[in-house]
């Protein structure tokens, strides 16, 4: 990531979001994944909670998250006292390579 990448302050974004903007909710994501994979919603929910919890902890531990179908996510902690953490997100480009099955990397 470079300094020219867009950086978002999570707190500022939450307070300035237009209420009319659409938002993906957990139930929609779970229903979509269950439909696409044939798994039960309960199994999908447990899997997503585990995966997202792992990603969250990795980010909080200072790691950068790179998941080809999503993109790159990083928490940037400013050096000045009292400054809020900033989230930097670089969405993945829509290429066939980014959306290939990563099962061989397990």
UniProtKB/TrEMBL annotation:
InterPro entries associated with the record: Hist_DNA-bd (IPR000119), IHF-like_DNA-bd_dom_sf (IPR010992)
Molecular function (Gene Ontology), one example: structural constituent of chromatin
Pfam family, one: Bac_DNA_binding
Top-rank lineage group of the source organism: Bacteria
Alphabetical keyword list: DNA-binding
Family per similarity comment: Belongs to the bacterial histone-like protein family.
Protein name: DNA-binding protein
């Amino acid at each position: 990531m470079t300094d020219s990448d867009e950086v978002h302050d999570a707190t500022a974004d939450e307070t300035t979001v237009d209420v009319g903007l659409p938002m993906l909710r957990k139930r929609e994501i779970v229903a979509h994944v269950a439909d696409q994979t044939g798994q039960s919603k309960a199994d999908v929910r447990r899997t997503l909670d585990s995966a997202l919890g792992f990603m969250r902890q990795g980010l909080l531990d200072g790691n950068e998250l790179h998941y080809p179908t999503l993109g790159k996510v990083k928490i940037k902690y400013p050096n000045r006292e009292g400054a809020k953490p900033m989230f930097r997100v670089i969405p993945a480009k829509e290429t066939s390579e980014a959306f290939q099955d990563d099962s061989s990397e397990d």
